[in-house]
Every structure is written in C-alpha cells, then in structure tokens.
Design goal:
Blueprint lengths: L3 H30 L20 H30 L15 H13 L5 H8 L2 H10 L9 H10 L3 H16 L12 E13 L8 E8 L5 E17 L5 E8 L15 H15 L5 E5 L6 H9 L3 E5 L6 H11 L6 E6 L2 E15 L5 E17 L6 E12 L8 H5 L7 H12 L12 H22 L2 H10 L1 H13 L5 H6 L11
Parallel strand pairs: 1-5, 5-6
Antiparallel strand pairs: 1-3, 2-3, 3-4, 6-10, 7-8, 8-9, 9-10
Length: 513
C-alpha cells in the first residue's frame, strides 16, 4: 500500500483530471450550440500493438516498404535523369561509384534520417541493410563512403540538385496533383528565413557575421563575433497543412555591399529568390505569403511586376500612413464587415480597399493596397485551473486583390494564415530527424549540396506519408515513428525478395490521400 501522502496526491490529480474533462465536455456542447467546431486533436494512439502474430507484423512491414517503393518509382526516374546531366569532374578511370549512385545514396541518408555522416557510414553499411537496399535499388551495387559523397558535392554545381527538386515539383503541377489544395486557383508560396547554423570561428568566407554578448571570466559582459549561415526558404503551403519544399536562397557575405560595409539581408535575398521562382514557374498563378518584414513598396512592386498576388502580414508599427487611412475610411465603409465562424472561433473581419501607399523619391512611387483586419475570439479549457476561459487575438494583412465578403475567408483563413506551414516545416527539419542545423560538411559548396539533398528527401517522405496505406500508419505511429518503422524493417530480415522484385513489373502511379 502506498504512503498516505502519495494516495492524497493521486486523488488530487484524478480530481483535477475529472474537472478538466467535465469543463471540456461543457465547452464542446456550448460550441455545438453556437455552430462552432471543436478543434481536432491528432495524438498518437496509446493502445498496444495491433498485430497478434509474427506473420501479421511481417506482412505489415512488407506492405509499408512496398508502398514506399511505389513512391520511389514515381519520383526517382525524374531525379536520376536530372542527376545524370550534372557534370562530374572526377577522373572516370579512378571512380568506383557513378555520380547518380552517390546522389541516390545521399537522398537515402536523409530519407532514413541519419543524424550525421558517421551514423550513415555505421548504420547503412550493415550487411542486412545493404542487402535490402540493393533489393529495392539495384543501382546500389555497393554503398559508398560518406567522404566520397562529400568530395563529390564539394566539386559539382550543387544548384543542379535543387533544380532536380524543381523539375519534380513541375512534373506534379503538370499532372495536377495539387489542384484540390489550391485557394482561388492560385498556388500559395510561403517565404521565410531561418538560421541554419552558427559558429564562434569563421569556417568559410561566405559566412555572415554579427556581435553577440557573452559573460567573461571576470564577470563583465562584453561582445564577440559570431559567424552564421542564414537561408531564405520558399515552400508551397497548402490549406490542408501539406508544405512542399521548393527553393532555398543562401545569404552570403559576397552578396553584401562591401563598400558600404553592409551584409547580405533577407530583403535582398528575396529579390534573388523571387527572380528564380519566376524563372522556374513563369506562368504559374502564384499567391505569395509573407510575414511582417515585407510590407514595403519595392516588395509589392516586384510581386506585381511578376503578376503575383500577395498577402503580407501588416504589423501595428508598419506603414503608418496606410494605417491612418485605414482607420479613417473604416468609419465610412461600414458595409465592409463580416462576422464569420471558423472552427472553434468567432471572427469579425473589417477591410478597406484601394488605399494609396506612397514611398521613395519624395513619395513619387505608389502602390494601391487593400487592408483587412480580423478580430477573433474563442473559448478553451485552461490547463492549470480547469476553467473555461475567453481568448482573443487580432491579425492584419495587406492584400494585392480587392477584398469582399465572398473572398475574405479564403484569402485570410485558407491562404494568409497557412504561412505557418513553412514555420512548421522548419520545426520538422530542425528537430524531427532531418538535421537542418547540422552542417554535414564545412565546405560551403558541399554544405549546400547536403542541404538540397535534405530538402529533396523531405519532399519524398511527405509524398510517401500522404499515400493511403502510410497515412494510416502515421495516425497510429506518428511521422517519426513511421520513418523509424521503415528504417528498422530495412535493417532486419523482414522483406520478401520475390515480392519486392515483382514490383518492377507493375505500373506505378502516385496517388495522394
């Protein structure tokens, strides 16, 4: 029998849990009466294993790997064909592995979420792992050493690896794979920057530099230089939560203005990135989703010159003249309002169209913008007290298109607010197995090559997880659990070689769930 104090504490915890459950039940009934929907929770199952016998487990593992192979067969021909066009400067008489084999090996390193080059050498060279990989990919007659891949990436034009990713996305767009995820027939592209890594020493001349504070041994606070890598990323951010990696623009010391002693910045990188997006997708209907750094005239002018729509976060301290005109006209345009229910939230939209924003050269340049604000409120159960509390938030955006009651929900809720998809993608790539913040190489060119291979592998895993069979495993095991499940299967003697070989004779078409 437990101690009295433990029994009392356990009783208190049970009472708190029951109180929260009762409050949650009351809240659900209240939301249903108001026409609101309670947010769905996507927690991993807490049940025991669903397989009762070894045969059932083996069949489940076999089916999961076969489903993954189907995705590989849908994407690898395009990738390998593109990789074969990359010039290989190595001596063909002394090379053991073709460049396409090395690239495929590099993709698999991130598909199976190896944490480093050492881990890839150690784990993927296991005899059973090699046997299963050769069964799945006959091109891999033998697995190379990671140093071989590193040397290749330091020599080739690694930007062509990213171009292979672009060709793959272009193929899916032509095949209308993403049509049902669009908002008002436009492809939503979210752009945001993030730090890749930082060091206390200058390990390459392309690094950016900043001053950071630190506490010296004598207790005084002083500053020292820190060298870091910053990347501006662009991704397709669909309203269903699927975020497709697209392009990466590395900020570099060489892109800065040395005469003015200015480093490269995110806004300058955006101009380069936008030019590349327009080059690869010249006629694609695009809506750019941007954060509070970007509401300025040059950015809006650039988007409009490319015939792109945009939704940009408008912060309270940005574009004071636009805010002044918005507040003044809002009182006159009372009809530009909408009460809306979205999920568990009551929303109140207000908007003003055709606001003239002047900038640069004594306000000689101008942009016509449309501003919308959203005041929303909702109720939730407070974790600490177990009580139902009222919450509220406010959002504001600049739109390139005229706003109305018919499109404000689609532009704001289904478009602009899903800019969070790229931030969630950063979280996944940094902390859920893709090692975004790991350099993999201190050679700048090779580091970029590993980064592009990582983004490409993330795309392949995303597509696999959206197939019908693997989507069910994601529900029961989670995304990382699924990848671990597939990795463990390939490391062990679970697979039927005849069934794997027979897949090559079956037509394969990628079908997203």
């Amino acid at each position: 029998m437990g101690k009295p104090s433990r029994r009392l504490r356990r009783k208190e915890l049970n009472e708190e849990k029951q109180k929260k459950n009762r409050a949650a039940s009351v809240l659900r009934r209240r939301q249903a009466a108001q026409g609101l929907q309670s947010p769905t929770t996507t927690t991993i199952s807490n049940g025991k294993c669903e397989w009762k016998t070894v045969d059932e487990e083996q069949n489940a593992r076999q089916q999961a790997v076969e489903e993954q192979i189907k995705v590989y067969r849908a994407v690898l021909p395009t990738l390998l064909k593109r990789f074969a066009k990359i010039h290989d400067p190595r001596n063909p008489k002394t090379t053991k592995h073709k460049s396409t084999v090395l690239m495929l090996y590099g993709i698999l390193v991130f598909v199976f979420q190896m944490g480093s080059r050492r881990e890839a050498n150690r784990e993927m060279s296991l005899p059973m792992f090699q046997q299963n990989l050769r069964l799945m990919f006959p091109e891999l007659e033998s697995l190379p050493h990671q140093d071989t891949l590193n040397r290749l990436l330091s020599l080739i034009d690694v930007n062509q690896i990213e171009e292979a990713l672009i060709e793959l996305v272009q193929k899916f767009i032509r095949g209308k794979k993403f049509c049902r995820y669009l908002t008002s027939t436009h492809y939503p592209i979210a752009v945001d920057g993030t730090q890749k890594l930082a060091r206390d020493f200058r390990w390459t001349e392309q690094c950016l530099e900043r001053q950071v504070q630190y506490k010296a041994e004598n207790g005084t606070v002083t500053t020292r230089p820190q060298y870091y890598v910053y990347v501006l990323e662009a991704s397709l951010a669909f309203a269903n939560g699927m975020t497709i990696p697209l392009l990466s623009e590395f900020l570099s010391y060489a892109e800065g203005d040395r005469e003015a002693n200015k480093q490269d910045c995110e806004l300058k990188a955006f101009q380069r990135l936008a030019q590349r997006i327009k080059h690869y997708f010249p006629r694609l209907p695009i809506r750019v989703l941007l954060d509070g750094l970007y509401p300025n005239g040059p950015v809006m002018a650039l988007c409009r010159s490319y015939h792109w729509q945009f939704m940009i976060v408008l912060q309270d301290d940005s574009l004071t003249t636009v805010w002044e005109e918005y507040r003044g006209l809002r009182q006159l345009e009372r009809h530009n309002q909408l009460n809306h229910k979205w999920g568990n939230r009551n929303q109140y939209f207000e908007w003003v169209n055709n606001i003239e924003y002047r900038y640069e050269n004594n306000d000689r340049k101008k942009q016509t913008v449309h501003v919308v604000t959203c005041q929303e409120s909702w109720e939730e159960v407070e974790p600490e007290s177990g009580k139902i509390v009222q919450k509220s938030s406010r959002h504001a955006w600049i739109s390139s298109e005229v706003l109305s009651g018919k499109n404000v929900h689609e532009f704001c809720n289904l478009g602009a607010r899903h800019r969070w998809g790229i931030e969630n993608s950063f979280l996944i790539e940094k902390h859920h197995g893709y090692q975004y913040e790991h350099a993999f190489s201190h050679n700048w060119n090779a580091m970029k090559g590993y980064h592009f291979l990582m983004r490409l592998s993330h795309l392949i895993n995303l597509l696999a997880q959206k197939t019908a069979l693997l989507a069910k495993l994601v529900e029961s095991r989670g995304v990382r659990g699924l990848i671990q499940f597939l990795r463990e299967t390939c490391k062990s003697p679970w697979l039927d070689a005849n069934r794997i070989s027979a897949l090559s004779a079956i037509p394969c078409q990628l079908r997203l769930d």
